[in-house]
From TrEMBL:
Coiled coil feature spans: none
Similarity remark: Belongs to the NAD(P)H dehydrogenase (quinone) family.
Pfam families: Flavodoxin_2
Name the UniProt record assigns to this protein: NAD(P)H-dependent oxidoreductase
Length: 216
C-alpha cells in the first residue's frame, strides 16, 4: 500500500507541514509505505519551461527533466495521494500549481481521444485533500465559492481519475488556539488510519478476485 503525501506549502515549519507529518506517521504505523514529498524543499525546476515539458503523449518520461521524471514516478507508484496546502488568494500556492502543471501531464494523468471526455489514466487510485485557511469556513464558501476545493478536487484530481475520499478544511488558523491545533493533528492521524484500512480492504478484495482466463 503506497501513499504519497504531497505538501504544497513553500515555507518550511508551517501548520500544513505538521499536519502532513501527523498523517504520514499514522499511515506508516498502520502498515502503509509512505513517501512525503515536500515542495518547500524539493529542487523543483520551474524555468525555462519548454512546450515538450508539458506533455508526455506516449506515456514515457525520457524527455523530461530528471527531477520531474522522478516526481512522475512517485505519483504513478502511489495507490493513495494526500495533498495538503494553505489557502492563498482564495486558491493554493504557486509551487503546488507548478507541480500539477509539470507532473500531471497529458499521457501521464489523462489522454484525449476522439470523444469529448478524456481517458483518466490515474483511475483506481484514491486521493484526500487538506486545506488550512485564515478565513472562516462560511467565508470560503460564500465569498470564494470554494475555488480551491473545486480546482484541486474536481478540475484536477477527479479529472485525472482519482476517487476523492475526503476533503478537510481547517478554518480560522490565525486565531486558533494550541488546543484546537492539537485536535486538528489528531484528526489528520485518524483520517490516515481510516485511509490505510480502506486501502487494505481494497488490496484484499483484489487479491481474492479470480484471475482472468487466458484468451483462446
Amino acid at each position: 500500500m503506497h501513499v504519497l503525501v504531497l505538501v504544497g506549502h513553500p515555507l518550511r515549519g508551517s501548520l500544513t507541514h505538521a499536519l502532513a507529518q501527523a498523517y504520514a506517521d499514522a499511515a506508516r504505523a498502520a502498515g502503509a509505505h509512505v513517501r512525503v514529498l515536500d515542495l518547500a524543499t524539493t529542487p523543483f525546476p520551474h524555468d525555462p519551461v519548454r512546450r515538450a515539458d508539458l506533455a508526455a503523449h506516449d506515456g514515457t518520461t525520457d524527455h523530461l527533466d530528471p527531477v520531474v521524471a522522478g516526481l512522475v514516478a512517485q505519483v504513478r507508484e502511489a495507490d493513495h495521494l494526500v495533498v495538503l496546502h494553505p489557502q492563498w488568494w482564495g486558491s493554493y500556492p504557486a509551487v503546488l500549481k507548478a507541480f500539477l502543471d509539470r507532473v500531471l501531464l497529458p499521457g501521464i494523468a489523462f489522454r484525449y481521444g476522439t470523444g469529448l471526455l478524456p481517458r483518466r489514466l490515474l483511475r483506481g487510485r484514491t486521493a484526500r485533500t487538506f486545506m488550512t485557511m485564515d478565513a472562516p469556513r462560511a467565508w470560503n464558501v460564500l465569498a470564494y465559492r470554494d475555488a480551491a476545493g473545486a480546482s484541486l478536487g474536481q478540475a484536477t484530481l477527479a479529472f485525472c481519475g482519482y476517487r476523492l475520499v475526503g476533503r478537510t478544511t481547517f478554518p480560522s488558523v490565525r486565531t486558533s488556539t494550541p488546543a484546537r491545533r492539537e485536535r486538528w493533528l489528531a484528526d489528520a492521524a485518524r483520517l490516515a488510519r481510516r485511509d490505510v484500512a480502506r486501502l487494505a480492504r481494497t488490496h484484499a478484495r483484489r487479491a481474492a478476485a479470480p484471475a482472468a482466463l487466458p484468451a483462446t
